[in-house]
Amino acid sequence: MTANITLIPFELHGDDRGSLIALENQRNLPFDIKRVYYIYATKTGISRGFHAHKNLKQILIAVKGSVEIHCEMHDQKTIYLLDTPDKGLLIEGMVWHTMENFSPDCVLLVLADDYYNEADYIRDYAIFKQGEHV
Question: Which residues are identified as catalytic?
């Protein structure tokens, strides 16, 4: 799978009562969801992630608060700030990523196209760097 990172804007619906964002398989989400999880109550100064995936596609959404997503692919490093629930960060394939600088109230929602599979993870940065050029 080719590595890819894309910010996806979500259409905001709402009025004076509040806001709503609908997430729909193969409409505003480029895959069918098989797994959903969220990260919250991350302690100050803690970073998470430190891995890449061989094949997984996932979308990260800060439904509350903010978090920086540090991504690396093809020797290019980029930092994405997720701070509103109306955009998601699509990460596909061999992208080394860490999640840093969580706000105290951050809730980071992750939608994935496959079930948890430890064999899909690359947790060693040196192995990631070798495989990135294959």
Answer: 51
